[in-house]
Amino acid sequence: SPVLLYIKSAVVKKQKTMSSPALSSAQPPSSQAGGLASSASPSTTQLSTTLSSTISSSASVLPAASQTSSPTVVTSKCTTVWPGGGIEEVACPTSMTTTSVVSANNGASTFKSVTSQSSVNGSTVNEGPTASVGPLPAQKGLSGGAVAGVAIAMLLVGLLIAGAIFFFLLRRQKKKRYNLVQTKPPPHAPVNDATRTLEKGPTAVTSEYATNLDDMLPQPVADDTITDAVLKLRDNIKNHVRTYYHLSPIPAAGVSQAHMGQLATAAGTSSARLASMLSNTSTRAETLRLILAWIVLSRCTGGYDESLLPQELAAIDMVIPGKDGSNTAQSAMYSKWKTVTGTLLHERFSQNKQNSDRKQKFAIAVADLDSIVAPFVQSGLEAQRSKNLDMILTRSANFAFLLFSQPGSFRFEFFSEHGGLVVFPGLVQTIGDQGQVLGPPRVLLEKEIAT
Length: 451
Fold this sequence. Notes:
alpha+beta, 3 domains, four-stranded antiparallel sheet, 16% strand, rod-shaped
């Protein structure tokens, strides 16, 4: 009816006036609106009561450290319209609203409103959901400069962490280059008390380069390389004897035996026998080949007092033990020393340069040779003979350095077990490529024995 609509409009305006702007009010649910719009039927006498309840709460924000809960009583009027046209205003049943101000951690205050239910004519009126006021929005925040400062600080921290990780990884990589290696006996060494002593020896700190030293050294040359060099020298000596010596008769008394002692011992004969074979024209050529081969080749493997090795190497090689193979450990160390030294000095001594040291060694060798074979040299060919001897000695010196730079050790054998004369010696290897003593020696080239 128009009267009810007017009353409803007045009540709504009053609600808006009493509402505080700092708080949020909950709208009455649709069930309440339906109750206000309903009217009593004219045919009944039941009292229709319209309940309009406005809950208004006001609260003040307390300091952040306190919490307050205060009840607020809201009083409203109810208008009763009777069917006969009479209007009566009475106090409506009220509800109690409790407003709590709870301090949050960030300093903002939260409002909570708890509304009790009221009853009309003994029935409970559902007033809808309770209004809740959220935390007040904070206006404080980081300025642009502070944000930039934080970003720069985080960048610097990231760089420091990355640098620390890189430094740690670099140190680990360096530590991998160093390890403890326990000294071991050479692989060729037999198992005996000396070997066990070596296995229990102290550890040595070696670098990666020392551990991989064998990989840095050249491989031993093939046997064919060595034997080919020896065969070339054999042919050079044979041609030299055939070209520069005569076969005219010379009495045995005219042959000097003063410098034949070492050769006679090595060949297993006597100086007198050698002198007799030189005076005999049928055996002179073979004996001259033996003498020249002894003078030249014995200087290549240490079988003679003089050596064709460079003076720096010859002096050390003469005093270092381990060449004879009597001591297994010394032989292994001698083998390694030769290989390393030969590799380091290869560029210096492998060239065919006639320095003063080499010329002096060649002169001594020629003098030793002439002290025996001078009566048999053809006259008029001295210059060519000297040049040819220089070529033979140069090849012999290079061959001596080749043998020295190998891990194995070699020896020329002039001795004949069958009593015949060895025209050209055989070549055997006494220490293997791994530094192990070979027994019996390994034969690379057989002896040439006069028939």
